[in-house]
Amino acid sequence: MKSWPGTVVPTLAQERVLPVLELTDSKSLKIQDVKVKDVYRMYVCGITPYDATHLGHAATYLTFDLINRYLRAQGSTVKYVQNITDIDDPLLERAKRDKVDWQELALSQIDLFRSDMVNLRILPPDHYIGAVEAIDLVTQSISALQEAGSIYPIDNDLYFKNYSSSEFGKLSHLNKAEMAKIFSERGGDPTLTGKIDPLDCLVWMAKREGEPGWPSIHGLGRPGWHIECTAIALKYLQPLADEQTCIDIQGGGSDLIFPHHEMCASQARVITGKELAEHYVHSAMIGLDGEKMSKSKGNLVFVSTLVNSGVDPMAIRFALMSDHYRNDRMWSQAVLELAQNRIALIKQAIMSKNCAPTETVISEIINWLAQDLNTSNALNSVDLWAAATLAGANGGDKQELLTTLDALLGLSF
Ligand code: ZN
Q1: What range(s) does the tRNA synthetases class I catalytic domain occupy (predicted)?
Q2: CATH topology for the 311-409 domain
């Protein structure tokens, strides 16, 4: 699948040595150092293309964009892969409800997603892979699980025994009853007759009447969601023999911790004998005006709607960065307006002939980002610099600050 065009990321001054990035890990529940390496491998779960791109999506991809930018700025290469679940029940259900072709719906939403990512200045993945184009990979991964004795049929569907890995459950920290409840709420089928364990997950769904299917060694059908990401991650970010984990960073929204990432991790351990990721990183949820934002409530706010109404995408980016990625937080007109007002002052400072000293603000942006992506404090430092500039202070290197804002925060004014 075609990715979206990226922007050229400026390079920070060579003498700047960035502190080691620290990120909260969902498995250990600790803030951990992302130890310095030449090459990182990062996999971030992509959208199911039927309602792109709401602000929750935007916040998630922004979080991993900040990680991507920081690791690049320290001089490393980031191999970044993202999937698109371009065949799954929610897509087919939406297409049926709206009486549109599911493929057309998917393509139109993927196009919209791409343009939203460009507008928000999110750097593109190196490989942007759709589930449909990954069907061969998925069937190979299912075969590997089969050889390990972890697959069984129910009718013509195939299921994976999540407890084949003794570590199952250690990412989400949920007990079995909690897992079953959430599994059911998020598209799982814990009560299905024929399952060995309620938490086993579908990896291959035999073709249903009126639904698409693809021929494979496992019969005519389509992939389950979790195995799709496992297969794509392992193929495009191949585990290195001398590393203890398959990849460095597995990412997504916090609603993916269970069942999705827990089940992907279980599958990867059975296939490779290794932990899937060194760091499991999750971005919190975005609500609207005091309520959870969700498709069932019908209160999703879309990036394209805001942009089409004249909102500067940089104001959306700024507003989403004004609180910490790990905080569930609210979106509102007031949040947006505050970001717009702050940007106006920063722009005014940038336009000033002289600007306040920039050394402190630049090092604070870097240091706050290193501390588990504390964008809120980083942006507060920029506000203070703008206020000092507008109060008449001078002696700063404006160009170096602009480079830092672009390279690390993705802000371009
Ligand atoms: Zn995924």
Answers
A1: 40-340
A2: Four Helix Bundle (Hemerythrin (Met), subunit A) (1.20.120)
